[in-house]
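Notes from the 1:1 (GR / supervisor)

We went over the backlog. Supervisor wanted to see one worked example end to end before approving the batch request, so GR pasted a single chain during the call. The sequence is below; no edits were made to it. Supervisor asked that the structure be written out right there so they could see what the output format looks like.
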Amino acid sequence: MSLILDAAYHVLHDYPGGSTSLAPRIGKNPFTMSSEVRGVGTAKLGLVDAVKMSVVANDRRILNAFAYEMGCMVLVLPTSGRHVNTFTQLGQLAREFGDYVEKLSAAVEDGKVTDNELARVREELAELVVAAQALEAEASRLNAEEHTRHP
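Structure output shown during the call:
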């Protein structure tokens, strides 16, 4: 669990102005919030506050730490409703696939995989999946557009 508190600590203190700036934005006292992310005494960071601070800071480190503790990864959903160049997305997907294969190959080359190597492989896989989802989202958008033209 210290991974999650470490992430919360850094989200709070990396935010411009630190706890004195972020805490009031989510309705917390800066001293209390600082104690909560340090796990001092009986102070505990609540799930609702962790979500609020992540949203206000636009920072996924707490979410990623939680996912990691559960053996999962976070995938950012593609933004819908905007037109993008499908060939650009396809190129991005190809680059991400290449990056994934490169990291995976390097990780298994010596017959063992360290924690850091596995983390890099998982990060590349997440980026590959996000690129694939973005391409699929554009295809879905074009499909929906076609249905509105020809019901």
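Supervisor's comment: Residues 115-149 form the longest helix (35 residues).
Batch request approved.
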